[in-house]
Amino acid sequence: MDKKNSYDDLCAYSEKFLNDWENKSTVRTQKRSRFSKQLLAKVEFAYHLKSYAHYPEVQALTKKQLQPFYLQSFCDMLGTVAIFEVSFVTDQCGKLATQDLGVELSDSVKRAAIAIGTDEMYHALVARELLSDIKTLTGMEPSHIATGAVKKKSVGTKKIKSSGVQLAPLDYFKSAVPPKLQNIAAAIVLCISENSAVDDLIVMARNANKDNPADLYIREHLADESRHSAFFQRLLKYMWSIVTEKDRIVLGRAIAGYFVKYISSNEDQRYRVHYNELRRLELSEQTCQTIAREVAQNECNTPLYDVEFNKPAMQLMKIAGVHDHLPTRRLFVRNNLLAA
């Protein structure tokens, strides 16, 4: 594993990131938009509907019937962004720039981390502004605020799931490694979280409709995230190349354990998630229960290597060279994170 090349690549990308930041970062190039009643009526955020979209009962719903579901789903996504980007991503970017990671980081790498934190803080600001507009115009709030519940979700999925922020994954990583590796472990969680955009959201961003403010927000956010993900791919590749073989084995176990713990879930957990989503639609109680149970069963019968939220993370592991580490790769295969 070439330590020098991975370090040089990280430093070179950091310099490029900083040079491009003025002209490409949303915070530097885009004027913030605000909602009006007319714009709210155009919101379509169908991502949370996709698990149920093939059911005839859902297909029979009109656009007018679906619009409240779209708006609540978008509101939930904004609520997650508003909290998570500040409490975890920005915080960890600051620590990356100021704390001793145990491996050498250049000044350009540290400045790039701060620039990324600035981007994320900006996305949280925009999310809060839009949430304020939605609440003023409709009274609607994110579900975890309205119910008082904070659900536990994987760091890798928080950005796009309607849940609150819960940093147990970070605690898990730190508890799974010795003290000398805890800062690197925290950086690995950050790398995973910044490589979590699933294909459907990327396609949604690419095909954004200028009349749909939800699509436009996703496009602006993911335009920044694509540059962030490339930085963190290089960071993980460098960290993985610089640690000892003994430390690699420990970190590999922690990574595999993280995916198993926070990507997998049991059928009853999945059922409750889908049932609560479906209750927002104009469907009968029996229909909500039947569809929720079928979707939950299908998801729990899906091997982890085919789970949507696992794929971006496994692509990160491939790019960073983690897959090339035989003990870790064996763990991934043994736990169905990779196909044999």
UniProtKB/TrEMBL annotation:
Molecular functions (GO terms)? oxidoreductase activity
Q: What is this protein called?
A: Diiron oxygenase
Which species expresses this protein natively?
Zwartia hollandica
